[in-house]
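[Meeting: bench + compute handoff]

Bench side (C.D.) handed over the final construct sequence. Compute side (W.E.) agreed to return the predicted structure before the next meeting so the bench team could plan truncations. Sequence as handed over:
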Amino acid sequence: LYGADFDTTGTNMLWNFSFLEPLTQVADTFLDPAESGLVSGLIADCYSACQWTHTCYDTCGFKWACYTKCHGVCEDSCIAEMYKNSTNLSKMYLDTIDYEAVQITDIQQFYLKTDSNLITDKFGYKLSSFGIELLTDILPYDSADVVYTFPMQYGNTDASTSSYEINAFDLIIWKHWQRRYNEVEGWGKLITPFGEFDSTLKVRTEIYAKDTITWGGEQYFIPDTLNLDSIIEYKWFHKDYKLPILTAKMLLMNGNTLLLDVSYIDSLRCFEPTATFIPYPPVAFIDSADYPE
């Protein structure tokens, strides 16, 4: 696999990756935001606009009456408006970040897909402490991440810079900054173990991201000591599929690439179970320092 050439590109190409052997399988799922588990945060986020400009305010006449008396109207109309103008897809980003007494869970990104692009500009999560849920929050990006620009055509390029910040009562502050550059750099036929696909488009994406986490008065930088230049993704698209039919992700470090993973659309497979045997009691490891002089 590490000898596979995902870099080669051009026009009227034949990319043959039929030799790929699956090791595992996962469901890559986008959800309706109403199924994200973060609806209360979406409603609260929507209230800030709804209380002043939408049906609730028109009906009830002032802010607190809108919140208390017209909750049903505001909820229905605001969520519908949010689908239309703000977000229509969500996807799990991370399951849990556990910092001893504080847990950040259900970390999700919210997307808006239109005829012109796919962007993500909202970030949702739940904050808990010792198993007690404290809040469900939706945070807007300071600037949106433009994931794709439509229509995709060979030779097209686009770039975006995005950032956001999560501040959990000043206990944990997570700042994210990212630069994305997309180029539709090739087209041709793609072959994977799943099938053969004519007229695919190959997109090269280069992402440089910097995360800063402040916790307990200390700052942690990701990446820190790694000489990481960026992350590179190669994705192949076909008009009959809404997700990339093949994705290769790698690290660019000191000018060299390190393959991270390869995934492709496939049919449902049944993998043979594997067993790992460990002697009981486990074999102890002894080094020279354990021997008496």
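W.E. noted at the follow-up: Residues 39-53 form the longest helix (15 residues). C.D. will use this when planning the next construct.
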